[in-house]
Amino acid sequence: MEFCPECGSMMYLEDGVFECGECGAVKVRDEDVDYTTTEEGGREEITVLEDAEDKGLPTTEVNCPDCGNDEAYWYLQQTRSADESETRFYICVNCDHKWRDYD
Question: pTM of the predicted model, to two decimals?
Answer without folding.
Answer: 0.48
